[in-house]
Amino acid sequence: MNCRPEDMLVYAVTDRAWLKGESLKDQVEKALKGGVTFVQLREKNLDRRLFLEEAATIKELCDSFHVPFVINDDVEIALASGADGVHVGQKDMDVKEARRRLGPGKIIGVSCKTVEQAKAAEAGGADYLGVGAMYPTDTKSDTSQVTVETLKAICRAVDIPVVAIGGIRADRIQPLKGTGADGVAVVSAIFGQPDIEAAARRLKETAEMYLGRHRRRKTVLTIAGSDSSGGAGIQADLKTMLANGVYGMSAITALTAQNTTGVSGIFPVTPEFLAMQIDSVFSDIRPDAVKIGMVSSGELIRVIAERLSYYKAENIVVDPVMISTSGSRLLDEDAVGALKELLLPMAAVATPNIPEAEVLSGICIRSSEDMVRAAEIISREYGCAVLCKGGHRLNDANDLLYRDGGFCWFMGRRIDNPNTHGTGCTLSSAIASGLARGYSLEQAVERAKEYLSGALEAMLDLGSGSGPMDHGFQIP
Ligand SMILES: Cc1ncc(COP(=O)(O)OP(=O)(O)O)c(N)n1
Ligand SMILES: Cc1ncsc1CCOP(=O)(O)O
Ligand SMILES: [Mg+2]
What we know:
This is Thiamine-phosphate synthase. The protein is an alpha/beta fold and 476 residues long.
């Protein structure tokens, strides 16, 4: 899935018929300020050079609001402009052909009027569906109406997000309640209004009230140690999860007495009590993702692996906490063996830092090329994706993601802040939050790095040692 149901809530479709002397960029910016969650550039008669220029401009604008942006009908413009994807109708291009041309990472939306079309689009690789016209509309002449019952049947028949389109106005959203539609796609009730920003805002408030079949808050479980100083471990994980829009839960592996100057005591829980915590969580609120942090013994690791495999846990992020900041080994040989044998093979991604990647790969890392080699060894050996974090000795904040035989770099901003306590816990929890919310691994990593940078840039300065970051930097 390349887009999330919540991205569909208020989906703006542009129309230069409403420009009235303004630029499209200014109008789209107003819509974004009003809170639209998705933008489609729909150009039926524009010269291709101007179409491409406009697409590149609107893409940059949407990026600055972190809002997905697709092109109507035209895969080539979508590719050339760097747009996030394309929206195609039944007569435009077969979804499989669009997927072949765009590759796996781009968004493809497909217009549907029937359950059959919807199922075929989903099977062909569509990421979302546009269903309509729901009401009479003057914006598109070559369309026919779809009933609310059909919209409901389509939503029931597919697992991908669905957006209702055609004649949508704020007062026409309530009748769509209970259909399962994730949002509304709108042209004239946004761009044809005298105050675009206010119109978008009103649509969003109304859609939030009545729509969204997948709007249950996503949940993440952290299995890690408690940090009494609140900067790392369970405490950092839960703060990170809250800030990244998911509901956080915990299973504590050990209590630690620590502050910014060091750890003065560790009190591990028993294997039975760890299992009890995991069971309590899974039997009631199934997590959409699991983050595993510090686990000090092979015995506890075996309990985690056994329980997670029993519950068929998904989206497991393993932060293989093995080496302390001062460089000393935190895990004995038995625990390292259990981590390698049992936890890594279950992981969607493991996030070692350089010393940890050295232990896991068995090679010494002195260069970026060594990072790639180590990640490749770990990924091949244990069958998981690997995010090898630069930071420690190399590469500033540039991290390497290795998965399925290929790799990409995520360039980080170098932030001059000595207070880095809990950065590993925070990054892995933010990645787990992104995966729980349905982002791809690449998107989850990118968003997590952005969050981490924000938390570091806030320059919280607490304690006399290496202090914590400001996990709540977005909160006023
Ligand atoms: C979100 C969304 N849904 C449906 C459409 C209509 O697409 P199509 O049927 O291809 O008609 P045109 O928009 O190309 O005239 C859409 N554009 N967006
Ligand atoms: C593009 C499209 N596809 C089905 S109806 C429609 C037009 C929607 O425009 P409006 O929101 O102004 O009714
Ligand atoms: Mg079309």
